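Entry, Tuesday afternoon. Goal for today is a structural model of the target with NAP bound, before we commit to ordering more compound. Inputs were pasted exactly as handed over by J.K., no edits. I checked the ligand SMILES twice against the vendor sheet because last time a stereocentre got dropped in transcription.
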Amino acid sequence: MEVSSTVLFAPADTVNVPSIRGAVRAVGSHLKNQGLNLLINNAGISSHATLRSLDSQEMLSVFATNVVGPLQVTKKAVKDAGKEGLSCSRAAVINVSTKLGSIGLCLGVPEAPMYPYRASKAAQNMVTRCMAAELRDKGILCTAIHPGWVKTDMGTEKAPLTVEHSVRGILTVLASLSQDTSGAFLDWEGNSLPW
Ligand SMILES: NC(=O)c1ccc[n+]([C@@H]2O[C@H](COP(=O)([O-])OP(=O)(O)OC[C@H]3O[C@@H](n4cnc5c(N)ncnc54)[C@H](OP(=O)(O)O)[C@@H]3O)[C@@H](O)[C@H]2O)c1
């Protein structure tokens, strides 16, 4: 664990439960009884496998990171936040999704199939919906955010958005979230996306 005056780095492998537990413990002891207000499940892996090229091990490993990981991290990190209305400054779980996981947008759109990645993000979207319904009573907001196509290792240099542009947009969207947008699927500009 590494701490500067404002930032604590608590590394975790999100497919490894003891590692998640260790990171949650480190964050908990740093925050004492203040509690964590915002959990962003950002870790993800991609796969371009097609029907022809995919193998089950690759499919399972992408699901482990993109679906089981956010579930396990959330399960270990959340605590009851009371019932005073939902917001990111009180208690929120944000699952970083992608519009490639949208079944609604996929209909008739001949994009790369990317079976493991797209199917895992569609499953992660359902996890977001279920969590939003279940955690509402604990005062915890839960929303899925598509960050745009961003210049990262995953997005590549071809992507139109810089990390700074995407993150600025996401921060503005996070500040606007409330009970009305808990359980929503939004992009980095706050536009609603079809599931
Ligand atoms: N870039 C885009 O255009 C784009 C578009 C839509 C959605 N997204 C989503 O945005 C999120 C971030 O993607 P990115 O573009 O930043 O991808 P990236 O450049 O490939 O980075 C992925 C990050 O996730 C971490 N990670 C992967 N598996 C992990 C695990 N088991 N435990 C802990 N960390 C793990 C990686 O850590 P290591 O480096 O240590 O492996 C890395 O820091 C993902 O959920 C992705 O699906 C990205």
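DSSP finds five helices and six strands in the chain.
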